[in-house]
Amino acid sequence: MELAIAASPDQAPVVEKLAAKWQEDAPEIDGRCAEVSVRAAQSAEVAQSLTPNWKADSDVPRVDVWMPDSSIWIKSAAARPDVKPMVSNTPTVVAKSPVVMALPKPMAEAQGWPDKVISWAELAKTRVAGTTWARFKHPEWQQIKIGIGDPRASFPALGTLLSVADTDGDNSVTEAELSNALVLARASTVEAATSDTFLARMRQVTNAQAGLINAGPFPATEAQVAAYDNAKPKVPLVAINPEEGTVFADYQYQVLKADWVDSVRQKVAAEFLRYLQSEDSKKAYGAAGFRDAQLSTQYAVGLDTDLGMGSLPSAARDLPDIKSISQTVGYWTALQRKANLLAVIDSSGSMADPAPDGNGTRMQVVQQACLRATALFNPQSNVGTWRFSTELDGDKDYQEMVPIGPVGGQLPDGTPRKDALEASIYNKLVPEGATGLYDTLLAAYKFMQNHWQADNRLNLLVMMTDGENQDPNGITQQQLIQQLRAVANPDKPIQVLIIGYGPDANLGELTTITKAVGGQAYPARTGADIEKVFLATLIGRES
Fold this sequence. Notes:
By secondary structure, the protein is α/β, with parallel strands linked by helices.
């Protein structure tokens, strides 16, 4: 009688060794020889693949006992009504390990570790700002890099995202806190979905200097860092308890309630669990760097205190409920989505008037908001800018400032597009003329139809204006609506947003226009209001 166990990759080697040792005594259950087979499987993948309809001829391996690295994956699986009964047995915690920041030791020391507490949020801001390691007296390491992983696939990545995003620790992420998730998303440059992938790559480093150039902090469990360091790699990692606090990986033993887990397999599962709770098993887990179920390190001889391991994090955090976690991961996923954006900005004379909130002119507030908004987009997103008033280019009311293309790319002359966007917003948005709203919107919409992109991109046309149409020589509102409807292509959807900034914007007019193509108009009194519209659009939520 074989018991099939799916264990998270970090603990699978320990479980496999213990299973082999347990079987040395040829255990029998109800007169039948009992065997335990252990398969390493990412917990998120098992959570997604569980089904009550499993058949013996299925391509998916059988699972009798599931040993994920966190209870959150069990809760995630239980969110599916058909799977919920399968995981209704009460699981048992066999080990724990804090989620830490795994960082090459030289890099940690360069930042003042162990005397200084290092923060994910601060590192992320540093990365987004383009800071190099020269700031920490190591220019040879070049650009600062940071890795997060995929919170949909990795518990350390998920725990880190939750800790950084939920700054007030109330187990929910508000709109105000979304900026923390955004900075983390934009800072992530070390491409590895899981800690296992990152650590496997670090193990292959043969040249320490080259390894440091391509490395950075990455979420992992303390046990994973211990296993890595105990193999004496070229670049040692330290386990840092970050300023944001940490969550604990709690390694579960979940016997599935399924048709194929018959009474005999249930007995085998119970006997093997008793063995996993024995002194020998606790020592085996401890030798691999795991703490016991009570967080004690009495068995954890594999933890090197010189590399930051073994202490109990002072800022331990509880996991929020599954609804809050799903919401936060949903935000993260949306922030990873690439966009194809044309921003069309009003540069009419009225933009020189005082801003509604008294912070400079209308143009100055919009300029600052636009500059901050560019940081919202994935580096592979396409962004371009136009300005509009009246007769800017012959009889045209609009003029291209920066051609649409990847934010992280360059213009044909080699200028980084980010630099060009910043320069154009500062230097080309000069208030002059009247407001040529209708002609500009029609031209911009046609432009986006011609430059529409697939690959699940968000095709977005955003117009910012402080007034209403003032071009007597252009098309009328009725003509605009008719022509917008005529050129709209349901196979190439374009999301149209018009932000009416200030008291002179005619929101009724803007709403009527945007409804013609299924878009929306939003009022804004401050630069923060403008940024909120951008962010809400990216995450698919009403502003």
